[in-house]
Amino acid sequence: MADPVPGLDPAAFRAALARFPSGVTIVTTRSEAGTPHGFTASSFAALSLDPPLVLVCLDRGADCFPVFTAAQRFVVNIVTPAHAALAVRFATKGEDKFADAGFEFDDQGIALLPDAAAVIRCELERAVPGGDHVILIGRVHDARTGDGEPVMWYRGDFLRIGESAA
């Protein structure tokens, strides 16, 4: 754990970050043994169009951290409001994340949500340390969109696009 920054109130920092709405994703991969793994991430962004790169941030304390940093491929599923409970499950340690979740598996055996707002399949280009997280940079090799609208995370709760925050 890094030394605290003098004068920075950690609670105020977290509250400031919560004022920035972000999309919600469920990121999946599989271990060398073929076991599916995943986590919920709101720190996801496009990095480059040429070459096609995205980034997603993973907490170093996540149970799936070693699997993702060793994986060759991962999938970013951009979730819809219908996936809110599933996103909470994937953000929780110790849950049986894939049980009755409606995932399909691609030709590499990686879970994807068939009714996601978008599915982006990536090869791990690089894992870059970033404080208490690692930044996974993925080279996109396939992307598709679905019919659903994405959901956002804002001030500790889900927010639908076009909906007013309380």
UniProtKB/TrEMBL annotation:
<dbReference type="InterPro" id="IPR002563">
    <property type="entry name" value="Flavin_Rdtase-like_dom"/>
</dbReference>
<dbReference type="Pfam" id="PF01613">
    <property type="entry name" value="Flavin_Reduct"/>
</dbReference>
<dbReference type="InterPro" id="IPR012349">
    <property type="entry name" value="Split_barrel_FMN-bd"/>
</dbReference>
<feature type="domain" description="Flavin reductase like">
    <location>
        <begin position="17"/>
        <end position="160"/>
    </location>
</feature>
<dbReference type="InterPro" id="IPR050268">
    <property type="entry name" value="NADH-dep_flavin_reductase"/>
</dbReference>
<protein>
    <submittedName>
        <fullName>Flavin reductase family protein</fullName>
    </submittedName>
</protein>
<keyword id="KW-0560">Oxidoreductase</keyword>
